[in-house]
Design brief:
The chain is 35% helix and 23% strand. By secondary structure, it is α+β, with helices and mostly antiparallel strands.
Length: 695
């Protein structure tokens, strides 16, 4: 039977339920607020709209320019203030976006110091610079009859939902933005190439689009993948050989400035990656950065080092995130262009339909006036005493002639005829009126033909844009294919590597240590230990790798195929082995065994493809010759972990390196001595070296 609950237990249960309800309410509130914030940042701030290719701040800036357009320049400070009634995020963001648009030189005609995106120089203050719309912007961006409007953030004004852009503006300008959980980066493309691609799409032909940057440079597009997520291009500066030991940078990669480029070169020089003497920035109307190197530098290698260690080569990722129908979507460059082209066709169709309606209305009104005046219907108005009588008289006078019209006469038409001025009636020219009516009729027929062939009309419109605005917009970035520069291969070895064999340290900042040789920060170091293990590590200032080092070497990129020679003893079996091996592939910081057995002891280690020989002195033992000679070039090259060939099963007291000539002479001397039984000649497991090699 369940025990009755006490009042204190009931109170605690109620408190827990209340706390849970409050916690649930707070979580829901924060979730709703965060989703609202994320949605606002994505759709209203950071991500461009596919329909017109603009972010909200850019759209509001252009609309403010349109509202202030009178053919003259306007102070940027005034434009920023005007735009603030549409944009609720302050003047700084408006000014920055306006300057960025002005520096692109497509939509805004600028006057004054607008800064230089190539050198990184900032623009003047907003009160000193001026702007107005370019003729191109006025033609392709604005059309009040095609524009949809909404209330501004405070409800006091109207602003466009999207501008009726008849051009792939998003791909021409490019875009970058970071929202909540989303980013976009659309690289800029060439003006003429975009229009030509639109024509190809309308004709059902295939097309390819690649970025084109205002800073020029060289570009490798093998990984562009039509701008899909994960796409990237590699862009290089254009570098020419200058006088003496110098290289001259003529064009810089997109996204860099001459100042940032110079800073990256200086940093590479300070880190010892290039042997830099000095840099001169002679940039004015065109980029000219002169990089002088120290004596003895190979300029081809120095050029490769600039690409490897500085901003002379950059990799630019692409991610086509846009807003379409109020939702963020990821599109390729081709998909964006196709959507823009279809939207252009629809805008031109709507514009032609509006033109046709206006022309038909104009023809109707002109015909009404012609009938009204030439048939003297206006004389009937003299006898009318009331407004209703006036309207009835005009209507009655028109009835015999309605067959000449193309639509019924409305009340508005009757009112319009009553407003015809006497000056117009008295100066009426029937012949001129018929010509004007014929001209309007011809325009109507032309618009109908354009509507019937809307694709051809769009192609002709695109051709007109190329003809009028394409001059001077040729491709600036050259598309080439270039190989990756291995940084380690071109790094200048301006530092020295040291080793402390007993203590087990290597590095460039060791004191009172043995010098290994020159190195760079990107080099790998091969370290072999007395216990028969091998490890590869990166060059550092000071690093503990392990005690009792017997061999250290700074590796080159080609050293994986280099041949190494080793003699070691397996202390468990007592056998001594000799072998040749190549380094092969490796993982840094990982130990690799150099032979068989758990306990090994390296007696000899040397690098060399041929001519490497070693002399082993065995401990004195009856009936055993104390000297053994190894010619490594008579051994097969094996894997890194292979056991090798057995040299002897007796204890070795010492080893040393000998020249090939010395070994040959000693072998000749010992060959004349009488042979005696030698246990070494009787195999007892393992693989022994041939008798002609070991004595």
């Amino acid at each position: 039977m369940e025990e009755p609950r006490t009042p204190s237990q009931d109170t605690n249960a109620q408190d827990r339920e209340t706390a849970a309800a409050l916690r649930f309410g707070v979580e829901e509130t924060f979730r709703d607020y965060f989703l609202q914030y994320a949605s606002y940042v994505i759709t209203d701030r950071a991500i461009p709209e596919l329909e017109d290719g603009l972010k909200p701040v850019q759209r509001r800036i252009l609309y403010s320019l349109w509202e202030n357009e009178d053919g003259r320049y306007n102070k940027v400070a005034n434009l920023v203030g005007h735009c603030m009634k549409y944009h609720p995020h302050g003047d700084a963001s408006i000014y920055a976006a306006l300057v960025a648009l002005g520096q692109k030189g497509l939509l805004i005609d600028t006057q004054g110091n607008w800064g230089d995106p190539v050198t990184g120089d900032p623009p003047a203050a907003a009160r000193y610079i001026e702007a107005r719309l370019t003729p191109f912007a006025k033609e392709v961006v604005f059309a009040p009859q095609l524009t949809r409007y909404k209330l501004s953030y405070d409800g006091r004004n109207r602003e466009p939902v999207a501008l009726p852009v008849r051009f792939p503006l998003l791909l021409a300008l490019g875009a970058e933005g970071i929202a909540v959980g989303l980013t976009t980066r659309i690289l800029p493309h060439n003006f003429v190439e975009l229009l030509e691609a639109q024509k190809a799409h309308l004709r059902g032909e295939t097309f390819e689009l690649y970025p084109d940057f205002p800073t020029g440079g060289l570009m490798d597009v093998r990984d562009y993948q039509d701008g899909r997520p994960g796409s990237r291009v590699r862009v290089r500066a254009v570098i020419e050989q200058g006088p003496g030991k110098s290289l001259v940078i003529r064009e810089i990669p997109f996204g860099t400035t001459t100042q940032s480029l110079i800073d990256s070169i200086i940093r590479a020089g300070e880190r010892g990656k290039i042997k830099l003497a000095n840099i001169q920035d002679n940039t004015s109307a065109h980029v000219e950065v002169v990089v002088n190197f120290q004596r003895g530098v190979d300029l081809e290698k120095a050029k490769a080092a600039l690409y490897a260690f500085t901003d002379c080569e950059v990799s630019l990722a692409a991610n086509g995130m846009v807003i379409r129908d109020g939702q963020p979507v990821n599109l390729s460059v081709s998909e964006m262009l196709e959507a823009n082209t279809e939207h252009m066709v629809e805008l031109l169709r709507r514009d032609l339909e509006i033109q046709l309606n206006n022309l038909e209305e104009e023809w109707h009104r002109k015909s009404l006036v012609q009938i009204f005046i030439e048939n003297r219907i206006y004389l009937r108005l003299e006898e009318c005493k009331t407004w209703e009588a006036v309207i009835a008289a005009v209507d009655e006078g028109l009835r015999p002639h309605v067959g000449k019209l193309r639509r019924p006469v409305t009340q508005e038409d009757l009112v319009y005829l009553t407003e015809v001025k006497m000056r117009r009636i008295s100066a009426w020219d029937a012949e001129r009126a018929r010509k004007e009516l014929a001209k309007v009729d011809a325009l109507i027929r032309q618009v109908k033909r354009d509507l019937a062939d809307i694709v051809g009309t769009t192609v002709r419109y695109i051709d007109s844009l190329i003809e009028r605005y394409g001059a001077g917009r040729e491709r600036r970035t050259r598309i080439v294919s270039f190989d990756s520069v291995e940084a380690a291969a071109v790094a200048e070895r301006t530092r020295k590597l040291y080793v402390e064999p007993k203590a087990g340290f290597i590095g460039t900042d060791l004191r009172d240590a043995k010098e290994v040789g020159p190195c760079s920060d990107l080099d790998d170091v091969l370290v072999v230990f007395r216990d028969g293990n091998l490890v590869v590590v990166r060059v550092t200032d000071k690093k503990y790798v392990g005690e009792d080092i017997v061999y250290t070497e700074v590796l080159d990129p080609t050293d994986r195929e280099a041949v190494y020679n080793v003699i070691y003893t397996d202390e468990d079996s007592g056998k001594t082995y000799a072998k040749r091996f190549t380094l092969g592939g490796y993982t840094r910081e990982r130990n690799y065994p150099l032979g068989a057995g758990r306990r090994r002891r390296v007696l000899f280690f040397a690098r060399g493809e041929s001519g490497v020989c070693a002399h082993l002195r065995l401990r004195k033992k009856p009936r055993v010759k104390p000297d053994r000679y190894v010619r490594f070039d008579e051994l097969r090259v094996k894997g890194r972990s292979a056991a090798g060939n057995v040299v002897t099963r007796h204890a070795v007291s010492s080893t040393r390196s000998l020249t090939e000539a010395t070994v040959a002479r000693r072998l000749a001397e010992t060959s004349s001595e009488p042979e005696s039984p030698d246990p070494e000649q009787t195999p007892s497991g393992g693989s022994s070296l041939r008798q002609s090699t070991l004595f």
